[in-house]
Amino acid sequence: MKKLFLFIALTQACFLINAQETLYGIEQIAGTESLVKDRLTEMGATGDYTFSVLLPVGGCPRCEGSIPLFFNDTKKYFPEVYNLIIALSDNPQTAENNISTKNYGTNNIVCVDNDDPLMQSFHFKTGSAGVPYIVIINNNTGDFINASPLLGISYDLDFFQSLTENLETVKVDKISVKTNTSKFHSSISPSIIKLKSLENKSYNINCSTLPTVSNITLSKDLSKLALLEFETSSVLLSEKKTDQYVLTDTIKTTESEYYLFKAPDVPDSLVQALRFLNVMQIIYLDIAFSDNAEELLISASLPKLYWEDIVTEKLVYTNEACLIRYNLKEKSKTISPMQLDSLYITSHSHFYIDEEKQRIFMGILKGWPTQGTTAEPTSTDTDPFIDSFYDFSPMMSVLTYPQCTFSQYLGELPSWHKKEHTGYFYFSPKVCFDKNHYVVADTHTGEITTFDRNSLKQISTFNINDLLLKKGLLVKNDTITYSLQPNSKLQRIIDKKELLSSRILDVAYNKNTYYVLLTDEKNVILYICFPEINKLMSTDYIAPPFIGDINKMKLLYQNGEIKVVSIVDNSGKVSLNTMTFTH
After folding, report:
1. Fewer CB under 10 Å: which end of the chain, C or N?
2. What is the helix (H) or strand (E) element at residue 73, kind and residue range?
3. Cα–Cα nearest to 458, from 395, 407, 404, 518
């Protein structure tokens, strides 16, 4: 039997490439060598070298298939070196439980978070560790010898040898600072006209510790709560009982989901083999309750297998974007593949649903660097530094519901992204609606656009950051000092983050009134905006112990009241906190 060749077509067309030639490059912070040496000793490293994989748990599940292959080759060709998985997670305790059952080719696994001393030695070109990295380290000196991202499954011995040859030579670049020394820190100030809180309530959630949650969603009446645990692609369901939310169900991936989009002529044994190697993954991405809270909707990526050439045994593995409808009463799933437009990539990592109008809204990925892995754009069509890139640059894809078929594109990318030549890198929309309108908020730039709910025509736009600037409530940095790789297009885009003074966490809307939950990464404030009359109201800083992870906060509008919702894990006591305001 010929050796099976597996080709994985990921959403962003990932392949294994040298770290210095790829978007997902990695460098060592100069001066951290002693820190690395000491921390590896604490982790149990022995011998002259450590062959490690830095694994952001759940960050890129389908990138993990090469990990056992790498460690198998390590044991075969370098049996004397120490092998190690450094599992990076916001919650190392739950991560350890989740990954201990997987086959990674080594049992040496240490779970850390971003505050671990070892993580202070890494500099990632993209700003964070979004994919697994092979990192070969000299235990005696603390130097990173070589490093490469694991972006696909086209792993072979040549790749392994390219990483492990000449171990005496340091091949990883070093930089003197982790971030630009001139990085600007702005501070948002509350408005003079302040909102008063009607009430604060805390509801215990009967779980001993908060799992690594990527998203939360609540039913409209707040009677049901769902938590998406992205490291295991499972959903925790709970119902409100007096002063607490009681766990009622866990939605897990099922055996049939691995085979649902497998071609009939692909044997089941291949599915089983790929699962053992951690190649085949089911990924649950986002969640939302139906209007009547009888179903939970899940956007998901399910594996799709088919032969490109059965004679040469070339097997193709792609993502099948799906919407899963989970019936809470019957505990059953209905899975519908999404029929997406081929012009641009629709990102189903987040979705917003309007059941009444039978629409689903999803973001778009267009051009470099949101697509691809190269350190520079490869064509004029993908280059955000060329003005023609923005000739047609929509905000979102609109799909019909429940058929999940593409209907049309919505809106135009806010002008800031064209002016600063950042493409879609910083575009992350939030969507809400009332009886007659849709509202799309651009998370980082603060631009908020309103559309007619029937025709989808744009009605108005305003920028909350501009409004705050005019009233002296926000300070903006208008200059950038490029200190790292000034000729790199990627670095120029990353440094533009200094111009973004605030970030919208969530948005709600009703009858020409905009409710915006805003942060400068230190403080959180709720603003109520009346752009037609240039008026603002706000809360004081919303502070701990109310706030847990600011990225999991929600904003809900109900019957003239606005609620800020936050999940908090305080020494093992998990709660859902609500703060209610009116105006």
Report:
1. N
2. helix 67-77
3. 395
Classify 49 as helix, strand or coil. strand
Half-sphere exposure of 301 (CA within 13 A, CB side): 20
Residues 358 and 338 sit within 8 Å (Cβ to Cβ): no
> At which residue do the structure tokens 């040469």 appear?
312
Contact 439, 507 (CB under 8 A): yes
Confidence label for 185 from pLDDT (cuts 50, 70 and 90): low
- List, in sequence order, every beta strand (DSSP E) within 162-259: 174-175, 197-205, 213-218, 224-229, 234-241, 244-251
How far the first Cα of the chain sits from its last, in Å, is 73
Query: Binning pLDDT at 50, 70 and 90, where does residue 154 land?
Result: low
Residues 6+ apart with CB under 8 A from 392: none
For 101, residues 6+ apart whose C-beta sits below 8 A from its C-beta are none
Question: Which tokens is 2 given?
Answer: 């010929």
Instruction: Please tell me the predicted confidence (pLDDT) of residue 152.
Output: 62
1-15, 125-139, 520-534: range with lowest mean pLDDT: 1-15
The model's pTM is 0.89
Which DSSP letter does residue 344 get?
Answer: S
Mean pLDDT, all residues of the chain: 88
DSSP helix/strand/coil, 169: coil
Interhelix angle 67-77/157-164, rounded to 10 degrees, is 60
What would the two tokens of residue 186 be? 């702005």
**CB of 298 closer than 8 Å to CB of 282:** no
- Encode pLDDT of 439-497 as tens digits: 999 999 999 999 999 999 999 999 999 999 988 898 877 777 655 555 688 888 888 88
Q: Which two tokens stand for residue 34?
A: 């002693």
How far is Cα 318 from Cα 301, in angstroms, rounded to an integer? 9
Distances, alpha carbon 42 to alpha carbons 85, 116, 117, 139, 577, in Å: 14, 12, 11, 12, 38
Q: How far apart are CA 553 and CA 525, in angstroms?
A: 12
Q: 422-459 burial string, b = 16+ CB within 10 Å, else e?
A: bbbbbbbbbbbbbeebbbbbbbbbbbbbbbebeebebe
**200, burial (CB in 10 Å: exposed 0-12, middle 13-18, buried 19+):** exposed
